Structures are given as C-alpha cells and as structure tokens.
Amino acid sequence: MTALTRRSFTACVAACFMAIGFTQPAAADQAAETYVQNLLDEAAPRLTSGDQEAMLAAVDELVDKYVDMRRVGRFVLGRAARQMTDEQAAEYFPLFKDYAKMVYRNTMENYAGQRLTVTGSVDRAAYDIIVNSKIANPEPGDQFADSVIHWRIYRDKEGNMSIFDAGANEIWLAIEQQEQFTSIIANNGGGVKGIDALIEDMKARLN
C-alpha cells in the first residue's frame, strides 16, 4: 500500500468513526433511571390498591416530594414570569401547586391499577434528562399498553434531582400548561394585568 493510499485509507476510517460518533444516541443516565424507578416503586402499592382516595393522596404526596413546583411554576409563565410582582408571586405559586396536583391526579387516573417500569433514558444535557417508562405486564387489549410515559429530570450542580415535567407519547404536561397560561395572559393584556387574569382563572378552575 503506497503512502498516499495509506493516508487515504486512514482518512476514510477516521471519517467513518466521526460519522458513527455523531449519529450515536445520547448515553443513558443510570442515576436518573434509578431515581425515577424509585419514585415508581414507591407509588406502585398505593396506585394499585384500588382505593381512589388513597391513590389521590399518594399522587399529592409524590408531587410534593419529587416535583420542583417553583421551577415548573416559573416555566409555565414563559416570559411573563419576569413581570410578576412579589404580591402576585405570593398568590400564584401556592395556587399553581394546587393546580398542578389536580392535573397530575387527573393524568395518573389513566394508569390506576398499573405498575410502571423504566425502559431507558436520554441525556439532553448534564442538567436535563428524559427518562422513559411503560406499563409493566399490561393486560391484553389495554389501551395504554404501548404508551410511553416520560419523566423530565432536572439535576442541579450538586447532583440533586427533581421532576421538571411528565407526559405520555411526546405530550408534556408543563409545555401544555405553558401554552394555556401564556395564552390567558396574552388575551388579557399581558404583563401584570394578564397575570392577574391568570390567577383568577386558576382560582375558578380549582373551585
């Protein structure tokens, strides 16, 4: 093999490895997968108990324990979060916590009686990980048998993790809420005035 041929061959091999590297999916995150599986294992006995009140109480407790409500609450406001007054924040965040719990309860009712198991994860960034799960051993004909339930994990600089969003089949709760909230704010004059309208809308939905 001539020197030129060797150089060409080496360049070709290098190009192939570079192409492979760029097309490989992001690595799975074992710590985030374990974090979510622990959540699911903790939830399973109560979500499969058949007791509706126990299930709803369990969802509330799990949201309190695992979801970073303040971070999510700011995210769903979009750009309006920077315009919120201290007085509005004092009213909005407790309301949002109750509102988000209501959304999670309504969503989790779809999976009452089911056990979920983690199936994999993708690192979007060091602080942003998507963990996927599915129903373990679904019954034949179960309408959610093929559903993929997603958990978006936020990891801070110290390595602490929390749930930032959840969803199913690429539909995310916080993103859906952001679209709804920002629309209400915009349709009511935006800024402080729009946030006041959002707060009143949330109160009405919670009553």
TrEMBL record:
InterPro entries: MlaC/ttg2D (IPR008869), Tgt2/MlaC_sf (IPR042245). Residues 1-28 form the signal peptide. Keywords: Signal. It comes from the Bacteria. Pfam families: MlaC. PANTHER family: INTERMEMBRANE PHOSPHOLIPID TRANSPORT SYSTEM BINDING PROTEIN MLAC. This is Phospholipid-binding protein MlaC. It comes from Hyphococcus aureus.
